[in-house]
Amino acid sequence: MNVRPASNTESSPLPDKPVGKRPASQRARGLSHTHPADVSLHDALAALADPVRRAIVRELGQVPDWSKACGTFDLAVSKATRSHHFAVLRQAGVIEQRDEGPRRLNRLRRTEFDAAFPGLLTLVLSEDTRAP
Hints:
single chain, alpha+beta, 6 helices, globular
């Protein structure tokens, strides 16, 4: 006689979950955006202090709103570091992001940011990046 030990699933049934339904991912739940008026000068300057983040801002300043996806930026950093930089810019009110299918599109919040910090983005956008 062949006796099979009971599997873990037979002895402890899974909790009732709808088949085919998964909880919404963090990405699907939406992004939080900080309005530039709610950002301190310190946080705004800290967000724009990093050269990678300034490169992101400069690229966004050259394209129409919502036309540049995160993965299309030419940055010499890992995917995780890239995500971190976008999050810092979003939390500082510099950019706004929205998901369209698998792509996360970006918009430079120039009007709103300029109202809170006049001239700061102009300095970043006009920065000469050529080596001396």
